[in-house]
Amino acid sequence: MKKIFLTIVLFLSLALKSMADEGMWLPLLLGQQVYNDMVKKGLKLTKDQLYNINKASLKDAIIIFGGGCTGEIVSAEGLIFTNHHCGYNAIASASTMEHNYLQNGFYARNKGEEIPTTLSVQFLLRIDDVTKEVMDSLQGLSGTERVAKQNAVLAAINKRMSDAGQFIETRVSPLFKGNQFLAFVYQRYSDIRLVGTPPESVGKFGGDTDNWEWPRHTGDFSVFRVYADADGKPAKFAEGNKPMKPKWYLPVSLRPLKDGDFSMIWGYPGGTNRYESSYGIKIATDINNPTLVKLRDARLKYMFEEMKKDPAVKLQLASSYAGIANYWKFFDGETKQLLKYDVFGQKQTAETKFNAWAKGKPEYENLFADWGKAYDAWRPYSKHRVYIVEGVMGSPLIAFAGSLMQVEAAMVKTGSSKADIAKAVEAANNQRTNFLKDENKTSDENILAAVTRMFYEDVDKQQHPLGFYGTLKNSYGALNDESTYKKYAADVFSKTMIFDDAKWAAFVANPDAVTLQSDLAFAHASAFLVNYNTKYAPFSQQFNTKNAEFGRLYLKGVMEMDPAKAKMMYPDATFTMRVSYGNVKSYRPRDAVFYDYVTTSKGLLEKYKAGDYEFDLPANQIELLKKKDFGQYMDPTRKDLVIGFITTNDITGGNSGSPVINGRGELIGLAFDGNYEALSHKLAFDKDLNRTICVDIRYVLWCIDKLGGGANIIKELKLMK
Prior knowledge:
By secondary structure, the chain is of the alpha+beta class. The protein has four domains: 41 residues, no CATH class; 277 residues, no CATH class; 118 residues, no CATH class; 145 residues, no CATH class. Helices cover 48% and strands 14% of the residues. A hairpin with a 5-residue loop joins strand 17 and strand 18. Helix 13 packs across helix 23, helix 14 packs antiparallel against helix 16 and helix 17 packs across helix 19. The protein is globular and about 75 Å long.
C-alpha cells in the first residue's frame, strides 16, 4: 500500500495530462513537468508564486466562500469577488420589501454602509501529507471495521492539527478513493460584510432557461469584504473591526481576450466521481437521476406558480428555488450526456480489461463479481431513498416535522431527564421560527399532495409505510384520484400545531409524546422516515460500505495494472483547493453550429424582454448599453462590452465564484457554470466539448462603476491595462 501511494505522488509530480485540459490538480503536487506545460500554454508566474507555505503566494488569495463556493481577494483591504448565486442567501437575508437589494442591487459608498452577514470564509494555510499515519492504522482491516477506524483516525488528526483559539480548522481529505490522505489546514474569518451586488435581473439574467447554456449573458457576481480585529486576527462581527490585510490579492486585467489565451482556475471543486464503475453509471441513468429530476420538477412547478403571483413570495422563495432548479437541470443533462456518449459501455470495456488482468490475483479476481452482487442487493431500494430525500423531505413542512423526531426521542427514551426534553424542545422552537420565515403554505401544500401521490405510484408497494395508504383511502378517497391527495394535504396544513401559535405554545410549555404523535404533519413525516430508517436504511449503509471498499480496491488495482495510465491520474474533486488550466476557446457543439468564445452587449440586448421573469434588465442599463457608454471597459477588438467568455478548464460545483486568471496572475473573470453539452463532467470529462462559462471581469467592473455608481470600489482595485 505504501508503495502504491509513493507511485501516485511520483506520477502526479512528473506527469503531463492525458487528455486536453482534463484534471483538477493539487497545487501542492504541481511538479516540474506539469508546471512546464502550464508555461508552454502561457503561464508567466514561478512555481513559488503559485503555491508556497512559507511565504505569500497566489493560493493565499483563494478562499472558501460560505459553505460551498469559492471567492478571491482582489484588494489590499480584503475585498472579495464571488458569484451572485454564491452570495444569494446573504443578499436575500439583507433585503426587505423597503430595501430590496436582491431586486434593485446595492453598492456601499463607503465602509460604513457595508452590511454584516452570517457568512464566513476560510483561507488555506497549508497541506500536510498524513497518508502513512492513516494507512498504518488501517492494516488488515476491511468493511465496517476499516470505515470506523478510518473515521476515528481522521477525527484525531483533525483535532490535533486544529486550534479553536486561532480559528484554525483541519480537515483530512481521502483522495483516490481512500488510497491517499492529505490534511488541509484552514483559518476561518467570520466577519464578512456585503459590499455590492447587481440587481437580480443582472445577476441571474437568463434564469433557468439559460442555466448550463452557452451563449450566456449573466452578470453572476457579488462583492463582499472580510474584516479582522485590530491585530489582523479573525474575530466575530464588531464595530471596531478593520478590513483584513491579505497576504496576496489578485490584480484585475482590463486587457482584451483572444481565442487561445491561457487560463487557469483556482478554487474548491466540490465533488467528482471520474473513477465510477459501470454499475454506478447504470443505476444513475436508470433510477437515481430520472427520479430526482421528476421530483424536483414537481417542487419547482408549485413554487414558481406562487412566485409569479407575488413579489414578496418571490423574495421569500428565491434562494430555495434557485438551489433546487440548478441541479434539476444538471442531472437531466448529465443523464442525457452519459447515454449519448455510452459512458456505461466505456466503463465496461475498461472493466473487462481489468478482469482479464485480475485472474489469479486473489485481491482482485472476484472484485467485480462481488461488486455486482452489492449493486443487485441495493438496486430495488434505490428509488425509495431518492423519494425520501427529494420527495418526502422536499416538503419544507414535512422536513421540519421530521426534525421533531428528536423531540420525540427525548420524551420516550428511557432515562431521559426533564432537562434533556427541555433542550430538545428549545431547539425545535428555534428551528420553527426559521422555518416559518421561509414557509409558503400554498406551494408547500401542493408539493405534499403531489409527492404523496407520486410515492404511491412509483415506489414498490411492498416498501410503502405499513397501513399509511390504506388509512388515506378510507379517510379521503380513491388512491388514483388527485383530489384524494389534495384533501389530505389540506387537512395536514390546516390541523397541524406547527402553524398554530397557541397550540404550539401549549406544547412547548407542556411537551408530551401523545400530542406530538397525534399531529398530522409529524405523523406523516414519522410514517415515511421510520419505515425507511428501520427497514431500508441498513441496506443503504451496507451498500455504501461495500461500494467504497470495492472502489478503493479497483483504483488500487488499476494503478498496479497500468503504470502508464497511473501517470495520467489525478484525484477526484473533494472540495479541496485545486488548480486547472486550459485556454479561452470557441467550439462547435454539433454539425454546422459554431459558438464564439465571448458574448457581448449586442447579444444581451437581443435577449432582453421588458417585464420578463428571466430576461428583463434595469432601464438605466438598457440606456447605457444603447449609448455604448462602456468607458474603459470596452473591448478594443470587438468595439463592444464583453459580457462572458468560455474556457476549456476542468471545473465542477464548488468552483462557483472561482477566479479565472491569465498567465500573469491577473483576474480576467469569474467561473460560474458549465455547458450543457458536457454535463456528464462529474462522472466523465469530455475533452472536446467541455467548457467553463465565465463572466468577464470588465463587465463586472462596468456594472459596479457605470450601472451601480460604485466608483469607490473600483478605486480599491489594481487595474492592469
